[in-house]
Amino acid sequence: MMPRISLTSSLRDAVDGAESIELHAETIGEMFAKLAERYPRMADRIDAGIAVAIDGQIYRDDWNTKIPADAAEVFLMPRIQGG
Amino acid sequence: MTGVLVSTTINGDAVQFACPTDETLLDSLRNRVGLTGAKEGCGTGDCGACSVTLDGRLVCACLVLGVEANGREIGTVEGLVEDGKLHPLQEKFIEHAALQCGICTPGFLVAAKTLLEKNPKPSEEQIRYALAGNLCRCTGYDKIVRAVQAAAKEMRKK
Amino acid sequence: MGHDTNYQDREFKIIGTRVKRPDGIDKVTGRAKYGADAFAPGQLVGKVLRSPHAHAIIQKIDISKAEKLAGVKAIITSADLPDLTGSNRGMTDILENCMARGRALYHGHAVAAVAAIDEQTAKQALKLIKVTYKLLPHVTDVDEAMLPDAPIIQDFVLQDGKPSNIAGISTFGHGDVDAGFAEADVIVEKSYKTEQTHQGYIEPHACLANVSSDGSGELWVTTQGHFSFRVVCSTLLGLDMAKLKVTSSEIGGGFGGKTHVWTEPLALALSRKANRPVKLVMTRDEVFKASGPTSSTSMDIKIGAKKDGTITAATAMLRYQDGAFPGIWGMLGAMTAYACYDLKNVKTVGHDVLVNRPKVAAYRAPSAPMAAFGVESTMDLVANEIGMSPLDFRIKNAAKEGTQASYGPVYGPIGIGPTLEAVKKHPHMRAKLKKNQGRGMACGFWFNFGGQTCVDLNIGPDGTVSLTIGTIDVGGSRASLSLIVAEELGIPYDQVRTNIGDTASLGHNDTTEGSRGTFSSGMAAIFAARDAVGVLRERAAKMWDIPVDDVVWADGVATATGAKHSNLPPLTLAAIAAKAASTGGPIAGHNEVVADNAGVSFASHICDVEVDPETGSTKIIRYTVIQDAGKAIHPDYVEGQFQGGAAQGIGWALNEEYIYGADGCLQNTGFLDYRIPVCSDLPFIDTQILEIPNPNHPYGVRGVGETSIVPPLAAIGNAVSHAAGVRMTHIPMSAPRILKAIDDAKA
Ligand code: FES
Ligand code: FES
Q1: Which among B13, B115, C124, C705 has most CB atoms closer than 10 A?
Q2: β-strand pairing of B73-75 with B3-10
C-alpha cells in the first residue's frame, strides 16, 4: 500500500496545489528525495525545514526514520520550534 | 573619579578593598572581593538577587555603595555555611527542590535567614510578604515557601 | 545506532524517586558560576550603545572622541561585522538584529559597542559616541502595522508583489467551515487582544569572549544551546567552527529567551578587535528593550455548536507581531489554537506581522498561550449559550486517538481526555466559593521536540560513572539524567555524576528548547548506559575467561550464568573498572541520536480568583495544574515546571505588558514597572501529574516544560468572568481594565 502524503497548506504551492500525493518511500529521506525530484520547488522547502508526522507522531530531524508500509497517514508540516 | 580604601568585615573576616566612590557594594563584592554569590538581576533594587546583610539588616547590595561598607559588617550567602555545615535553609532548599535555575537562591537564602532570625515561627503569609522583594521566575514560589517552613521547623527543634 | 526507542513497560527501582540534585550544593552556597560570574586575566568591560528611537536612519556614527578616551580599547559598529551570511536570510536577520545596519529598527536596537578597561570608562565612552539619526515614521501596534499606509519595516517583505509588513500568512484546517456554521444552533464570535510579555529570567544575558589573533576563540555564555551559539557566532564572525569553543555557564533562567544570540557576536567582535578578553553583561533595561519578548496579538475567534454541545465549525484569524524581523509566531498560534479539540470543520489563519519592536523570541510553548486565550474564552461563552457546563462541553469535543488535529496530522494516543476527566474528579471543582470569587478552567496544548543529541558515559577507575551531556540544565535535568544512568546500570544514584560538556568535548547538540532536555539526553543516556553494560559484560567475561554470552548484568553486578560457573562470585562495577587497564582499557558508552518525537502534551488548569469590585484588582485564591507528563523521572522537577509555567501565565494574565509610548519607545524597562508575580501574589500551586507513557521513549518520557504556560490566561479570564460578571478580552487583565469593564457593564 502506498501511504497518502498530505501537505499543510503553506507547502501546497510547491507541489502545484495538490493537497495530497501518492508516493512510495520507505524512509523520510527517500520521500524527500522523490518529492524534490518530482517537484523541484520542494527542494528549497525541504532545506528550510519540514517536519513529518507519521500517524500523528512528529519527526523533525531523522531522515532515516522508517515510514511503515501500513502507515495510515504521512503529513508534512512546517518545522517548528519551542522555548 | 576618586578611589577610596574600604575596611570592612565580610562573613566575619576582616577585608579591605579599594573602589571608586560611585561603585555599588554589589560590584565591589563581585569584582573586587571575588564574592560572586550575590547576583545582579536588575541593578535597581527590584529583584532581590543581590540581597546581603549590612550590620544584620537586609539590603539590596545594588542600592548600597561600596564605600558605605566601611567599618560595618556584611553578610553574604557565602557566609551561611558554619563549621563546614550547611545552614538548615540551605539543606531544605535542596531537599524541597526550591531552586530550579538557582540564580535567585542566594538572595532568597539571605532574606529568609534574616526573617527567621526575627521571627522563628512565621506564618505562610508572613513568609510570603517577607520574601516579596525577591523575584523568582522559575518556581512559582511554591517549593520556596515550603522549604522556608521546613527550615523554620527544623531550627525550632534545636 | 540500533537501539529500540519504543516504550517498554517495566518496574523502576529509582526512577521516580525524589533525590537531591547534584548541582544543589553549589547553588545554595553561591559557588555556582553563572554567565556574569566568570573572569579572565586582562578582561575588558563591553557595553552597547542603543538606539533611542523606534525607527531611524543612521546617517553617521562619529567615534573620534570616544576612541581618544583613555582606557578605551575597541569600538565597533556594523562596519566591523561584514555580512558573511551568504544568502541565508535567517542569519542575515540575526546579524542585523545584533547590530543595526544603517537603520535602527526599534527602540533599543544596538548601534555601536565599546570595550574599555572598566565599567565607568566604557559608559563614558558610550556618551562620547555621536550618532546622527534621521527619524522615520514608526509603528508598534500589530493591527496598525497591517494597514495599507503603515510605515514599512523591511523592504524585502512583499505581499502580492508590494512592500508589506505581513511577513507570512499560514493557513491550517480541514472540512468546510461555512457548511459547519450553517449547521450550528449557536455561534459566538469575539475579538481578543494580548499584550507583549518578556520571559523575565532573573539572570540577564552575559558572556565572556576571548578571541586570539590566530582566529581561535572561546566563549563563556549563559545560553540554552552552546552548540547552536557556536554555529551562529562562527558564521557571523567568519571563524572556523572547530576553533571556537563555547562553554555554557550555569543558566539563570531562559524559557526560550536564551535560544537566540543577542550581544554574544558583539563581545566576540570587540575581543577580536581589542585582542583581549571582553566581558559583556546586559543591564535589565537592555534585556527588556532588546532581547526577545513574545508577540503581542490581536485575534478573531468564531465557534459554532449544536444544542447538544457538538462543535460544528471553528475559525481563528490570528495576527501576531514578530518585532522587526520575520518569525513563525503567527504560524505557531494558528497550529496550536484548536489542537485540543476534535473538529470536523476548522480553519485557522496566522499572520506574522512586522513592527518596530525587538525581534520576538520563543517564550515557553511559544504563541500557544495567546491563541488558547481566545479559543478557551470563546469555548466558555459557547457553553454558556447552550446551557452546558464548560467542562462537559470540553469533554464532549476533546480530541482523542484518531482525531485529525486542526494543524493537520492524526493523533496517536493523547492525554487531553484524561486531564479533563481528572478535572472532573478533582476536589478543587467542588470547593465552595465566597463573594466576589469565581472559578474558571481552560486547556492547553504543546508539541514538544527532541533533536540532535549526544552523550558520553565514562566509568572511572573506581567504578563511579560520569555522564557528559550537551543539553543545558535549566531546572534539575542533571539529577534526572543521573537517575536514568543509575537505573540502567543498577547502581546507587550518588555514584553517577552528570556534567555538561563544552562544544569541544561532544558532538553537536541542538538547543535545549521545546522541553527536550530530559527527554532527549535521557534517551541518549539510556542507550549509552546499555552500550557500557555491553562492555562491562565483555570485560567480566575476560576476567573470568568464559564466553560473554554466559555473563548477565543485573543490579549493578556481572554474574556468570549456568551451573558450571556457580563457583564464580559476581563482579561489581568497581571490581571490573579496577581491572580495566588489563582487560582492554577505559570503559565507556556513547550515544548519538536524533531523539525525535517528544510526544504532544496537554494540560487542564483550574483557577479560583477573587476580584475586588471597587478597584478591579484580582487575587488568585487557588490554582491547580493537571498535565500529562509521560513518565516523571524526578517528580519534584516535573511539579516545579508545572508551577513555574502556571506562575508565568498568571503574571501574563494579570499584570505583565510592554507599554510603548506614542514615540514608539518602551516605557517600562525595569522590574518595578514590568511587574512579574512575587511571592505574596500567589497561593500554593497544586499539581497533578498524569503519567501517560510516550510510546516513543524507552521509559515513556514526554517533554514537560512548556505546556503549563498555555492555559492560565484563559483559565483566569474565565474565572474573572464568573467572579465579576464581565468578559475580559484584553490581556493583561490589569486592575484598571477590569474596573473599566465593570463600570461599562453597569452603564
Ligand atoms: S540586583 Fe539588586 S535588587 Fe536586583
Ligand atoms: S530558581 Fe530560577 S529564578 Fe528562582
Answers
A1: C705
A2: parallel
Give the Å distance between the CA of B106 and the centre of ligand 1: 12
d(CA C485, CA C177): 51
Spatial separation of the C-alpha atoms in residues C24 and C35, rounded to whole Å = 17
C589 and C549 fall within a common domain: yes
Q: Hey, what's the cell of C251? A: 543558566
pLDDT for A55: 80
User: What residues of chain A have any CB closer than 8 angstroms to a CB in chain C?
Assistant: 6, 8-10, 53, 55-62, 65, 72-73, 75, 77-78, 80-83
Whether B35 and B29 have beta carbons less than 8 Å apart is answered as: yes
Which residues, listed in sequence order, are joined to residue C158 by a DSSP beta bridge? C163
**Using a CB-CB distance cutoff of 8 angstroms, which residues of chain A are in contact with residue C407?**
8, 77
How many other C-beta atoms lie within 10 A of the C-beta of residue C59? Answer: 10
Residue nearest to atom 3 of ligand 1 (CA): B45
Q: Specify the CATH number for the domain of residue C56.
A: 3.90.1170.50
User: CA–CA separation, C618 vs C436, rounded Å?
Assistant: 10
The pLDDT tens digits for B120-150 are: 999 999 999 999 999 999 999 999 999 999 9
* Residue from B30, B44, B83, B100 to probe the interface with C (highest C Cβ count within 10 Å): B100
In chain C, residues with a C-beta closer than 8 Å to the C-beta of A6 are: 408-409
Count of domains observed in chain C: 3
Ligand 2 centroid vs B47 CA: distance in angstroms?
11
Give CATH for domain B88-157: 1.10.150.120
Q: Is C91 in contact with C232 (CB distance < 8 Å)? A: yes
Domains in chain A (CATH in brackets) are 4-78 (3.10.20.30)
Rounded CA gap, C15 and C482, in Å?
10
> Which of B28, B36, B42, B134 to mutate for ligand 1's pocket (most ligand atoms within 8 Å of CB)?
B42
Q: Is B104 in the pocket of ligand 2 (CB under 6 A)?
A: yes
pLDDT score, position A78: 80
Touch of B by A (3+ CB pairs closer than 8 Å)? no
Residue whose C-alpha is closest to residue C338's, from C398, C415, C406: C406
Q: How far apart are CA C477 and CA C512, in angstroms?
A: 11
Q: Which residue has the cell 504521512?
A: A74
**Structural domain boundaries enclosing C75:** 35-136+204-251+258-290
Q: What is the pLDDT of residue C1?
A: 42
Q: Specify the CATH architecture of the domain B3-78.
A: Roll (3.10)
- Say whether both C439 and C460 belong to one domain: no
Radius of gyration in angstroms for the set of CA atoms belonging to chain C, rounded to a whole number: 27
Read off the DSSP letter of residue C701.
Answer: B
CB spacing of C515 vs A80 below 8 angstroms: no
CATH number of domain containing C529: 3.30.365.10
Min Cα distance A31 → chain C (Å) is 17
Instruction: For ligand 1, say whether the CB of B42 is within 6 Å of any of its atoms.
Output: yes
pTM of the model: 0.95
C492-508 pLDDT, tens digit each: 999 999 999 999 999 99
* B54 touches ligand 2 (CB under 6 Å): no
